[in-house]
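Record passed on here:
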Amino acid sequence: MNEAPPLLYCANHPNIETTLRCNNCEKPICPKCAVLTPTGYRCRECVRGQQKNFDTALWYDYPLVIGAAGLLSFLGSWLATVIGFFSILLAPAAGFIIAEACRMMIKRRRSNRLFLVAAVSAGLAAIPFLLIVLFRLLASGRFSFDIIWLGYYLLTVPSTVYYRLRGIRVR
């Protein structure tokens, strides 16, 4: 006859009954501890262990990315002040170029934190020219569209760098 499955208790919460198991290590887990992955439910320890396999960045990748993204973004923001309206075309291209330069320098090593550092560095490097244009605007009292183009650059480049390095996922 059909026997009822044995009662299992969550490995992390011993007072919660469950029938769910991690599909990697077979540890019993409750719905609170389960993490849905594309291949099924896993415990947090297995997910964390898997994520560590994908973080391959070395310590010296961070200064390389900060320098490359910062320098290229600084030059791009200067160019955005020079070309004005055409910054609409420049900003996404600059983000792409910065991301690919960073990827080349770190030899395709990966880390979510590294990608975030690259995006923040690209954004911070664009701020000096934005401040210069803002001070010129306040000093002259006349409106300048340069503030709009640099603002657009400042919003577009870091997001382009981050998503280009991280990889866009469409679900």
User: Anything to note?
Assistant: Helices lie at 44-54, 61-83, 87-105, 112-140, 146-166. Residues 61-166 form one domain. The radius of gyration is 24 Å. The mean pLDDT is 88.
